[in-house]
Amino acid sequence: MASKNRASLTHKVRYAARNPRRVPPYARRLARDAWLRMKTRDHVGYYRAVMRSDASRTPFGAVGTPSEKRWLALGELQFDYLVKHGLKPGDRMLEIGCGNLRAGRLFIDHLDAGNYYGIDISPDILFAAEDTLVRYDLQDKLPHLTPVRDLQLEFLPAAHFNVVHAHSVFSHSPLDVIDECFANIGRVLAPGGFFDFTFNRTEGKEHQVLREDFYYRTETLVTLAAKHKLDATFMEDWEANDHKQSKIRVTA
Ligand SMILES: C[S@@+](CC[C@H](N)C(=O)[O-])C[C@H]1O[C@@H](n2cnc3c(N)ncnc32)[C@H](O)[C@@H]1O
């Protein structure tokens, strides 16, 4: 539920009592993440190291769906939503944090050749994305897959993308990363284009867990978007599905 504070000691103690078998893996993750934080300079470097560690075990797990069935379902959920909102083969799409193309493979198949551009901070998950292209026979669609250091987007053309999509990326991002994205997204959006992103919504205190999962109030993100002269709309129709995150659409 949107108001739960997963960072609070009360929540952690209650959760551990209800799920004793999850305590050892959580403790291992806590230790690993502390080690990775020590070795890296900033959030993006840290999260890139988390992705390297997770992807070396299973790329499906690294994007949050260890079972292939859930991986397929989460991809379809994203794809069906955008098609319902009018995604056409001629659209030019940028996917921020494309992962191993859980949804990207469906976007690539749907869009005209060359019209999909996926970026990610993790080279390791992009290697897995290439495996997905091979597995689904999508080579002829010639998608672009590019590792990025940050979200300045300065290497991309202005006013180019009708649709920008980021699923389960800001749920792993501190506010300064989202701020950087908002500062630059307006430049690459084509006239009439939109940027959809999901986020972990809380109606209580904003918090984070292990610097991996971040929880925001809707108004924080709407206000941040306005600072960059972007209009943000909470997407009520997305709430009807069983996904834990909420969605906001931003236009320039
Ligand atoms: C949970 S996965 C979701 C992947 C994909 N969007 C999907 O739904 O299958 C989050 C992805 O976002 C990437 N990511 C996290 N922070 C990012 C950032 N600041 N810029 C670009 N990619 C980022 C991660 O490397 C990872 O591949």
Architecture overview:
The chain is 42% helix and 19% strand. With 252 residues, the chain is an alpha/beta fold. The chain has a single domain (9-251), classed as 3-Layer(aba) Sandwich (Rossmann fold). Strands 1, 2, 3, 4, 5, 6, 7, 8 and 9 form a nine-stranded mixed β-sheet that branches. Helix 6 links the parallel strand 1 (93-96) and strand 2. Helix 2 packs across helix 3 and helix 3 (43-57) crosses helix 7. Bound molecules: S-adenosylmethionine.
Just name the CATH architecture.
3-Layer(aba) Sandwich
Q: Would you tell me the structural class of the helices and strands?
A: alpha/beta
Compute the number of strand runs: 9
Task: Give the helix proportion (percent range).
Answer: 40-55%
What does the overall shape look like?
A: globular
**How much of the polypeptide forms β-strand, as a percent range?**
15-25%
Please state the average pLDDT score. 95
Task: Please name the fourth-level CATH homologous superfamily.
Answer: Vaccinia Virus protein VP39
Low-confidence stretches: none
* Secondary-structure element pattern, one letter each: HHHHHEHEHEEHEEEHEE
The number of domains is 1
- Distinct helical segment count: 9
* Most strands sheet: 9 strands, mixed
**Which hetero compounds are present in the coordinates?**
S-adenosylmethionine
The N- and C-terminal alpha carbons lie at a distance of: 31 Å
CATH topology: Rossmann fold
- Over the alpha carbons, how many angstroms does the gyration radius reach? 18 Å
Instruction: Just give the CATH class.
Output: Alpha Beta
GO molecular function, one term: methyltransferase activity
Pfam family, one: Methyltransf_12
Protein name: Class I SAM-dependent methyltransferase
Keywords: Lipid metabolism, Methyltransferase, S-adenosyl-L-methionine, Transferase
